[in-house]
Structure formats: C-alpha cells, structure tokens
UniProtKB/TrEMBL annotation:
GO terms for molecular function: 5-carboxymethyl-2-hydroxymuconate delta-isomerase activity. Pfam families: CHMI. InterPro entries: 5-COMe_2-OHmuconate_Isoase, Tautomerase/MIF_sf. This is 5-carboxymethyl-2-hydroxymuconate Delta-isomerase. It comes from Chryseobacterium nakagawai. Coiled coil: none annotated.
Length: 127
C-alpha cells in the first residue's frame, strides 16, 4: 500500500521512458510523507487501442489506491502534486488526470495480515 496504476496511450512511451514516468509518480508519493518506506508500488499499463475526443491525441491517468485515514486535504495535495509533476514531464499531453481512492481497512487483506505469526495484525509485518 499504496498502489499507483498509470494507464496511458502507447504513444506516451515515445515521449518519455516508462521508468521516467513511474519515477515521477513514485518520487511524489515518497516525498508526500503519507506512506511507509518501501511500501509504495507504481506500475504502468500502456494501451494500443483507445478512443478519444476529436483532435485529442493521447492520455495518461493515474489511479492512486491508498489505505483510508488520510484527510481530504492530504489526498487533494497528493493528486495535485502528481498532476503537476507529470504535466512538467509531458507538457503536450491531451488528457492528464489523477484520482485518489481509499481502501477500507476493515476489508483489506494482504500476505502479512494472514501470517499466523502476526499477532498484532500489522499490515507491514515482515517487510
């Protein structure tokens, strides 16, 4: 936790390397101070086939999934910082957007939480 999933049109990867795009999102998430060290995950999925509005060439959207508990202000700031960083990196993009959604702690599970040795139900157990 958190997960940042970048979806974009294939041609975006002709403008910037995947690592540059993922590093931009990772660095903002890391500097936000909202997440445990080494807990941030970023991945990128390009699309070859997509449809956009007239005279629109490409797109990039970041889906941020984070554990509940952050304020609206913190989530807004994170979204805006990611948007700003990516706009600087890709100034000519047609559509660039970011959304931050929360996981509900009560319904979240991971490998650490099901470990029988994790008596305190710490989702970072063993990391």
């Amino acid at each position: 936790m958190p997960h940042f999933i970048i979806e974009c049109s294939q041609d975006i990867l002709q403008q910037k390397a995947p690592d540059e795009i993922m590093d931009a999102v990772y660095s903002v998430a890391e500097s936000a101070g909202l997440f445990a060290i080494n807990d941030i995950k970023v991945r990128l999925q390009p699309y070859q086939y997509y449809r956009l509005g007239e005279h629109k060439n490409n797109f990039l959207h970041v889906f941020g999934y984070i554990m509940q508990g952050r304020s609206t202000e913190q989530k807004t700031n994170l979204s805006k910082q990611i948007s700003t960083q990516l706009t600087e990196l890709l100034p000519d993009i047609s559509f660039l957007s970011v959304s931050i959604c929360e996981f509900e702690a009560a319904t979240y599970s991971n490998k650490a939480l099901i470990n029988p040795e994790n008596k305190n139900h710490d989702r970072h157990f063993g990391l």
